[in-house]
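// run 5 | inverse folding | seed 20
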């Protein structure tokens, strides 16, 4: 569709391209389970779940098709043995595997032949400013492709239950082996940016972004998780039951299968610290003790009022899901290139091979992780009173509280210096009518639709 000047009817030579490519999605799922009584005291069961799906979606222009494939498989085996009426043991083994692949494929001769990086399909072409909304964006394959995540989780656990008199004891533990394999790419097929459409027609790019030959954002992260617990349900009387327990869990320091480990331990360091100076991305803490306590108290003999309460400490262990994205692109194993010499870019376009060297590495971009990462901690407490009203009504009043500590967050460590304009940290109201008004005291500030009150902390930066 070509737009016209409404006044003269002349063509503006500005058009809108509209397309509606067909997206195809397929998904298959099935599950199977087997139960078997081995002996009079032992039974086993096994379960297998399979979930497979893929999708394909051509780009509107029609040169590239994006495809996603995912497969999830879960295997569980468990055996239960009753040694005597008071002693029961349950052992289990599980294996979970989740795999997801995302990539772009050339479906036209143009995308196959217009390659920026030798041996790869067409990269990304953008028209417009380097930052902000481009005039024409993301023509070609996505800058983040190819990517994949393959996650293997091996688990073995055992639980022992012993009942004696008024006590119901439980002990148990679990061991999990985590194998996280992923690659997170950026501009591996190259990206050219043109300032405007005229420069595109003249083949005069202003910027090229890419990755040096031989580098990729792959990491094989390995961790082991351990946990043990013990608890007792103690029936002190017919009206009072106590639940007491203690759990401990931890993870080993995350390592990389091929020793591609690095981290920026101090923002003032000129270079990152690499293996073998460090053998893990960060250190974990092992003092993750989690006491639990709860009670249920029937306050009268008619059982019309019950008071329940509890307290517990819980930990959110730091596993690869929390950090695998940034560690995939850590230098010195992965670099981002930025070539800005317009003369060289124009002379070599679209062949980016001469640019794929460390001489064009931009300022090092890195999201370092704290050298020691304690697990996130949650303190949770509850108190509830339940009162029966008549034969059919129940009234409950409850309180639930929690507090979190050691929560992970992102912090900008290398921020630019700011400048205070005209020596003022606050811009005074101009006294003009405001279309919208929002302030600390709307009743006063918005009565006349003028902003008349400043923030009490206006002089703090």
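// decoded
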């Amino acid at each position: 569709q070509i737009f016209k000047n409404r006044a003269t009817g002349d063509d503006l030579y500005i058009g809108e391209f509209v397309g509606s490519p067909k997206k195809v999605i397929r998904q298959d799922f099935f599950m199977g389970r087997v139960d078997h009584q081995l002996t009079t005291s032992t039974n086993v069961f096994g379960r297998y779940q399979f979930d497979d799906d893929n999708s394909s979606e051509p780009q509107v222009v029609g040169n590239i098709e994006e495809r996603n494939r995912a497969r999830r498989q879960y295997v569980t085996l468990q055996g239960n043995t009753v040694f005597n009426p008071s002693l029961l043991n349950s052992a289990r083994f599980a294996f979970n595997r989740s795999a997801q692949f995302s990539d772009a494929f050339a479906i036209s001769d143009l995308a196959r032949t217009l390659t920026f990086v030798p041996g790869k399909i067409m990269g990304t072409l953008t028209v417009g400013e380097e930052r902000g909304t481009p005039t024409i964006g993301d023509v070609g394959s996505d800058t983040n492709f190819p990517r994949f995540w393959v996650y293997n989780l091996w688990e073995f656990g055992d639980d022992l239950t012993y009942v004696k008199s008024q006590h119901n004891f439980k002990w148990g533990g679990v061991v999990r082996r985590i194998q996280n394999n992923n690659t997170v790419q950026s501009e591996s097929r190259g990206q050219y940016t043109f300032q405007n459409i005229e420069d595109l027609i003249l083949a005069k790019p202003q910027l090229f972004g890419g990755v040096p030959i031989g580098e990729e954002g792959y990491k094989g992260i390995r961790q082991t998780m351990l946990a043990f617990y013990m608890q007792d349900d103690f029936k002190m009387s017919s009206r009072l039951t106590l639940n007491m327990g203690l759990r401990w869990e931890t993870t080993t320091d995350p390592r990389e299968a091929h020793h591609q480990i690095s981290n920026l331990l101090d923002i003032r360091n000129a270079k990152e610290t690499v293996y073998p100076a460090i053998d893990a991305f960060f250190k974990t803490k092992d003092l993750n003790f989690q006491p639990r306590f709860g009670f249920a108290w029937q306050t009268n003999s008619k059982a019309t009022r019950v008071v329940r309460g509890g307290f517990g400490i819980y930990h959110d262990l730091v596993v690869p899901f929390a950090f695998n994205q940034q560690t995939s692109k850590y230098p010195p194993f992965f670099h981002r290139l930025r070539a800005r010499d317009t003369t060289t870019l124009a002379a070599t376009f679209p062949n980016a091979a001469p640019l794929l060297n460390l001489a064009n590495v931009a300022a090092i971009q890195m999201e370092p992780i704290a050298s020691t990462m304690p697990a996130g901690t949650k303190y949770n407490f509850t108190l509830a009173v339940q009162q029966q009203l008549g034969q059919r009504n129940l009234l409950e009043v409850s309180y639930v509280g929690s507090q979190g500590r050691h929560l992970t967050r992102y912090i900008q460590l290398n921020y630019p210096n700011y400048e205070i304009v005209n020596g003022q940290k606050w811009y005074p109201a101009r006294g003009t009518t405001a279309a919208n008004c929002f302030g600390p005291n709307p009743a006063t500030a918005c009565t006349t639709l003028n902003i008349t009150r400043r923030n009490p902390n206006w002089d703090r930066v």
